[in-house]
Design goal:
By secondary structure, this protein is mainly alpha-helical. It has six helices and no strands.
């Protein structure tokens, strides 16, 4: 298949997306509010806040796949924020989706048992609900939302510098 056979609309949309991510050709970019980019840990923590907020705003509560995906993302961003803030880690240290569970265990935020359960939940369920053939349920979506909210609140309370979380704004 040659490049000329690709649909023009797809090629134009791809070009627009590349320009947007490179922040070219579109004037001044409009950044998402409430993402604090002053330090990497604040960026990750406030991304966790925004992911949880997005879950709250999903209309109709029937988008279980999206809910689950966003909640696992919120858990990861929150745990990464702790490791970046309290452990001196670099953002580039988080090279896969499960390293954050290992790292926060080493830093004493979570017990080995809880971290292993979280990692297992991620490996067995997030991956399968997103990539695999499972059909997510309302109960799974509600449970992971409660879990993500509790982890985000716990991490926020454990970070020594407070006042960064935007969830109550």
């Amino acid at each position: 298949m040659s490049n000329d056979s690709d649909p023009k609309a797809v090629k134009q949309a791809l070009s627009d997306a590349i320009d947007a991510f490179n922040e070219q050709g579109r004037g001044l970019p409009t950044y998402e509010e409430d993402i604090d980019t002053t330090t990497d840990w604040k960026t990750q923590l406030t991304k966790g806040c925004r992911l949880l907020r997005a879950v709250d705003e999903i209309p109709g509560d029937k988008f279980y796949t999206a809910n689950i995906e966003l909640c696992f993302g919120a858990i990861e961003r929150s745990l990464e924020a702790f490791a970046l803030s309290e452990g001196g880690d670099e953002l580039s240290d988080f090279h896969d989706h499960t390293y954050c569970y290992e790292r926060v265990t080493a830093l004493g935020l979570l017990s080995r048992e809880t971290a292993d359960q979280l990692k297992g939940l991620y490996n067995e369920n997030r991956t399968d609900s997103y990539y695999g053939g499972k059909q997510p349920t309302e109960e799974q979506a509600e449970a992971i939302q409660r879990l993500a909210s509790e982890f985000h609140r716990y991490v926020t309370d454990q970070v020594q510098e407070g006042g960064v979380c935007t969830c109550d704004r």
